[in-house]
Amino acid sequence: MATQPTPAHVTALWDAMRARYGTRIVDKSSAAEMKLVGWFLERIGVLDQATFLERFTTTIGRRIYVPFTPGTPTPRHSLWSQIVICVHEHQHVEQLVRDGAVTFSLRYLASPAARAAYEADAYRCNLELHYWHTGQLPSPRELAERLRSYGVRDADIDVAETTLIAAARTVKAGGIITPAAKFAIAWLREHAPELEHRGAA
Fold first, then answer.
1. Where would you tag: which of 39, 77, 110, 123 has the fewest CB atoms within 10 A of its CB?
2. CA gap 178, 128 in Å, rounded
3. Residue 161, pLDDT score
4. What's the pLDDT tens digit per position in 140-160?
């Protein structure tokens, strides 16, 4: 069984990632703008407001709206999942920097295919971290199926699965693809080496 992170590991990684990317954590449940987004998503039939506010972390620009306090485990957000979420959300910041804020925002909001592609890219972080920590790969299909909550089409989910299958091959061969995961894994190897699976590359 993999060694589990401590609250100190989680808060320190979040601090390191925030310093690297210039991001800010916002309590999602108290953010008026998130309540409006949740109301809108419920109205258009994508996701009910309570689920959006309680389960999903949302990144807008360099603000990361979290439904938990980093370092404090909850029934829905274990300490390890908080590490994975941290890296996943910072990969979205990488996408924003790469594509430009306007282009990223318009494509993410207006195109289900682009939204699925952005999320599949961020889910590569999940693959990379899970393999580093456990020596096992999560199911690409199960990760792709999570996109159903993002208002995408079946075809977009299939494309995301194909992307993640290819990524899984690279990860199993010892490759780390995403910049956010590269930074996080380097940090973890220095500050929490006991979390690495002994057979990881």
1. 110
2. 8
3. 98
4. 999 999 999 888 999 999 999
The residues near 3 (Cβ < 8 Å, ≥ 6 apart) are: 194, 195
Would you say 71 and 13 are in contact if contact means Cβ atoms under 8 Å apart? Answer: no
Q: Cα(90)–Cα(87) distance, rounded to whole angstroms? A: 5
Picking from 90, 76, 73, the residue whose alpha carbon sits closest to that of residue 7 is 73
What pLDDT does 201 receive? 45
Q: How far apart are CA 8 and CA 25, in angstroms?
A: 17
As a whole number of angstroms, the distance between CA 34 and CA 46 comes to 15
Question: pLDDT tens-digit profile of 79-111?
Answer: 999 999 999 999 999 999 999 999 999 998 889
Run of H or E residues at 25? strand 24-27
CB atoms within 10 A of CB 61: 13
